[in-house]
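Before a colleague's protein record goes any further, I have to sign it off. My question to you is simply how this chain folds and whether the tokens agree. I do not need a full report, just your reasoning and any doubts. This is what I was given:
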Amino acid sequence: MKKEVSQINSKVFEPTVEQRGLQLHILHPIEALFSFWIPSPEGEKEAFRIVKWIARQRGNYIQLTALDNIKKDEEYTRWKEHMKKILDYAHKIGVKVGINIQIFSVSSFQKAYVVSKKQDLEKILSLPFDAVNISFGEFTGTTPDEFIQKVNEVYEWVKSFNKNIEVSATIHVGNFENLWVEYKVERLLYYFLVKYANEDIVPWVHTVMFYNLFDDAGGAYNHDDFSLHREFLFERIKQGKKVSYFPETAYWIAFDNSVPLYLPIYIVSRWIDIKNITEAGKLYSHVIFSSGWEWGYWLFDYLSLRFSWSVPATWVEPLSELFPNWGKDIIKKLGEIQYDYLIRKRLTPYIAGEDFYVYLGCQSKVFFSQPCRITFEELVKMSDAEKQRFEKNVLEPLANMEKEIGTLLGNFPADSKSDPLILELKDGLDITYLRVKFMRNLYEAVFLHSYGKEFSEKLDTSVQILNKADKVVKRRAKNFFYPRPELLIEKCRKSNYISVWLFETGS
């Protein structure tokens, strides 16, 4: 890849990171699914706008997660025509496009496009994609020899179609016993076997949710931290080898923007990562795992792309391009509050959403993704000493977090709500405050009940909070930025999804 330079005021500028972009994770029903993957005249126009927007934010790479619907001939024909136009447009403005495929169908728990034979790949690479990213699913794996052999085989298949296509492979997370393997007198997590595959395959080091490489990971995917991933990435940089950092700006599955929650903590972590990584050496690629843009999550992609281009002195610096000083200060303070309570004090489980599958995973402990909370049943059964610790470590910090966010809301100017960005910020602040308040009241109700005390008042308060949150969600749905919002919310209305699931406790 040629070095990218800009002539600005007679000075030559080189971006901090060579490859900068987003993986539009369309395994989830997000905006990009309807724009990029499902053919339509509207989708084509939207895809062009998204490509142009990414380029304007200094991005030069887009990656799509391939879906298995195109294994049907009729859908494939329509998809191919649609995708060819998008690829041609992206290449015209200097943006490369990659495609993510999965191998090992046993690990495929979603509707990903699984490559089992060479012909599967041929269908994809009949189009001029610039890169292929290989992933391996989650939670289950194969033997080390089978893994390495298959990865190398897929690499050769790709190169047989186009020798210039870059091949990468994702190093996922998951600290579960069945994912630890022995290979070459080394005990390592299954995903790190990538380092034993073809040396031209670029490793993509992944982290999840708003956690970063340098702080506590809260128990996400059973990791206390992601130091293993950090050490691997730093070693590659030290050796002068290509490596990509592949963090997230949303975790759509029951966790944040689908709940919904407004979490500028994502910006804090993405800045902490890129600042520390680039101080250690030259990072080849920084691609963000992107899962939707409403409720402010577009802002996290916007800033992450800017960080890849040039790391600012502080994470709030680029906010000045979009918000007045008071708005920037609110986002800054909210990010700091969340960094303190969600990462340092490990309160994430008590504000994140939890559906049946998350609950089941946490109860079984076989595998789970987001950090697990103490359930109401567990709280009731605690000893007095355990309840005192829960009160100190969960209930009191939740109350303090609620108070601090409430102060931000109290300082929100009453006459500053006409700007669409300010309206979104206000809705995001409202819904996050109500979420924290809702969970605190529910847990305090059960906490009091466990001592045989009356708790109906707090349950009544929780219902009132839920009703307020319902109004905020409906208000935001009317102001979505995506031009076809009905695609994002139609099913919610049919199943009363907004008022029931969005604030579901799962316990």
